[in-house]
Amino acid sequence: MVAKNANVSWRAPAPVPPAYAAVLERAMQAHQARDLDTAERLYGEVLELRAAQPDALHYLGVLMHQRDRSDEAVRLIQAALKITPKHPDAHNNLGNIHKECGRLAEAEACYRRALECGPTHYNALSNLAFVLEVQERPDEAFETYARLLREAPTFAHGQYMTGLFLRNYAQNVEHVEQSIECFREAYRLDARNVRALEGLGVSLYTLGRHDEAREVYRDWLQREPDNPIPRHMLAATGGADIPPRADEAYVRNVFDGFADSFDEQLLKNLDYRAPEVLADAVGEVLPAADGSLDVLDAGCGTGLCAPLLRARARTLVGVDLSGGMIEKARARGGYDELVVAELTAYLQEHPAAYDVVISADTLIYFGDLAPVLEAAHSALRPGGWLTFTLEVLEGEGDRYELSSSGRYRHTHDHTQAVVEAAGFEHITIGMDMLRKEHGKIVSGWVVLARRGGNDMR
């Protein structure tokens, strides 16, 4: 269970006096429907009637975290636990808040307490396995995931999370094969979890069972012909023509779906470095951070680049195709403007508007880079700088490929040629570690290039 998004367990509250039982029930119904304003007002009414009502304190705490008021959320849930100290849901939700705030040791302690209070609280057990994994304690995580499968074989989310762990930390072929069975079972138990199908396809492809992987995506596409994910992944596994770039619907679908858990997913990649690497790159060529530049964060996601760019920016604009990601960036703060838009079109519509364009792990969804780089060139003022990351395709030659991850990779030769063709100069292309994935380092090209002229502020 993740406290910040919609996956909150809604167990019936303990019997309460009729004077406020109905109000509490309405508050929880509004909360489940994501009508947070109504829910907050109704929880407040319950607490006016009884200041120490533990369910209202607990779920109001969940709501406060959903509104990015996490310190207040912790205080409220801790107050609830003083009244009902053996409430496993409250311990689990408190653990989720700590986890999403990066306080992993505190999260672990909460999950262990939840399991002491409720040994069959399998959401807490799954969350415990996750934070052990994130803390790079894979042996303990493996034991915890194994316990989860042993004690809760019909828990679909547990099967899915175990499948991811087995593939990401596979020490042998058998672990990847086991991940395949977990993904199959996760989807059998919960057909709404289409990410289990995506995971299944990736694991099959990892083992070289390419025909089976393509069959997974073909079957999925037959059932959901309008779903862009299986269409894109079928191309990524060689079952269809490779598009010049990822379909907008695919990117929007993937990142809207990840918006609530995106930063949590990055916890699995504690060495995620793309924003810092790009900020360092532009820092070497820009003047002092005097707040004089107009900066575009192109593909801003949840806003991880904002704190690294803010001091240099007179105006800092973020643009992203995913409305869900933009909402998270808005909650994080730091931007003067946030826009939901397709990147190439946005750049084309803002000629000579920016001194710096930075794009962290966004152009990996473009195979043919020419249109977006030409648009970036036009959006920069003379003397302006562009910096972005790509995933490395080893070898020589002017080429790119769509990998089984659904992302594109580019050779050094191709990257150099297409940046030059877009009109840039002073081009540097270095290699750096951008993140870890499946327990392995993902190497990236770090590109820095300048539009000609000297009108830079």
In short:
The protein is an alpha/beta fold and 457 residues long.
What does this structure look like?
Helices cover 53% and strands 15% of the residues. The chain has three domains: 1-86, Tetratricopeptide repeat domain (Serine Threonine Protein Phosphatase 5, Tetratricopeptide repeat, Alpha Horseshoe), CATH 1.25.40; 119-241, Alpha Horseshoe (Serine Threonine Protein Phosphatase 5, Tetratricopeptide repeat); 265-451, Vaccinia Virus protein VP39 (Rossmann fold, 3-Layer(aba) Sandwich). The protein is of the alpha/beta class. Helix 8 runs antiparallel to helix 9 (156-168). Strands 1, 2, 3, 4, 5, 6, 7, 8 and 9 form a nine-stranded mixed β-sheet that branches. The protein has 21 helices and nine strands. Strand 1 (293-298), helix 17 (306-309) and strand 2 form a beta-alpha-beta unit. The chain has helices at 18-32, 36-49, 54-66, 70-83, 88-100, 104-117, 122-134, 138-151, 156-168, 173-189, 194-206, 210-223, 228-236, 248-258, 262-267, 274-283, 306-309, 323-332, 343-348, 370-379, 412-421; strands at 293-298, 313-320, 337-340, 354-359, 380-392, 400-402, 408-410, 424-437, 440-451.
**Strand share of the residues?**
15-25%
Shape: globular
Total discrete domains? 3
Mean pLDDT: 89
Quaternary structure annotation: single chain
CATH topology of the largest domain: Rossmann fold
CATH architecture of the largest domain: 3-Layer(aba) Sandwich
Secondary-structure element series: HHHHHHHHHHHHHHHHEHEHEHEHEEEHEE
The named CATH superfamily of the largest domain = Vaccinia Virus protein VP39
Question: Regions with pLDDT < 50 over 5+ consecutive residues?
Answer: 1-7
* Total strand segments: 9
Q: Into which percent range does the helicity of residues fall?
A: 40-55%
Distance between the termini: 48 Å
Q: Indicate the radius of gyration in whole angstroms.
A: 24 Å
The structural class is: alpha/beta
Largest sheet: 9 strands, mixed
Summed up, the helix count is: 21
